[in-house]
Amino acid sequence: MDRLLYHELRAAFAALAVAVVCGTVLGLVHGFAVPSDAGDLMMLSLALLAGVALSTLLGATRLKWVSEVRDFDRAVPVADIDVVPPADRSLRGDWFSPGFFVAYLVPVLPVALFWEGAVLFIPLWSALSWLGKAALIIRWERRHGLVLWRGHVEARPWELSVSHRSPASAGTGEPPA
User: Fold this and answer.
1) Is there a contact between 23 and 108 (Cβ–Cβ < 8 Å)?
2) What is the average per-residue pLDDT within 11-35?
3) DSSP secondary structure of 61-130
4) What is the pLDDT of residue 83?
5) Considering the entire predicted model, what is its pTM?
6) Cβ count within 10 A of residue 141
7) 31, 62, 131, 164: which has the fewest Cβ within 10 Å?
8) Number of neighbouring beta carbons within 10 Å of residue 91
9) Distance between CA atoms of residues 117 and 78, nearest Å
10) Which residues pair with 150 in a beta bridge?
């Protein structure tokens, strides 16, 4: 089992790393030139941000086909499935997903090098989308006092489950995980 918030953050960090690596390699091979028409780049960036913001806001609604919150509400309680969530698991030592990084880098880098450099916006869009979903998860967990988990069944890792927050460690003053 893996905490859904940590899964989304690891994916976002790996996608940002892919964008940085591809951008650096692209700049080293083709030169770090300022685009001839910065207006197009600005419009593409604004469209990217607007699309991600709209997608995140729609995910926060309860609309049938776009809602993330409805999926969170349908999560199965851990007590009902006889699974014990991992205790005291932190993102600190496991914040990056090398397998995902490589799987994302392999198709994006050749396309960026040999065809179109604007393909770098794809990992940026993915990272911003996953960060938006992480924000939705944080908001949902805090409002409900629960923690979302994924992968309680190995064959179906997309299924969600929930557990109660563990109490804060005595004397640390930290909020529950």
Assistant:
1) no
2) 86
3) S--TTT-SHHHHHTPEEGGGTT-PPPTT--STT----HHHHHHHHHHHHHHHHHT-GGGGHHHHHHHHHH
4) 66
5) 0.80
6) 20
7) 31
8) 14
9) 45
10) 2, 160
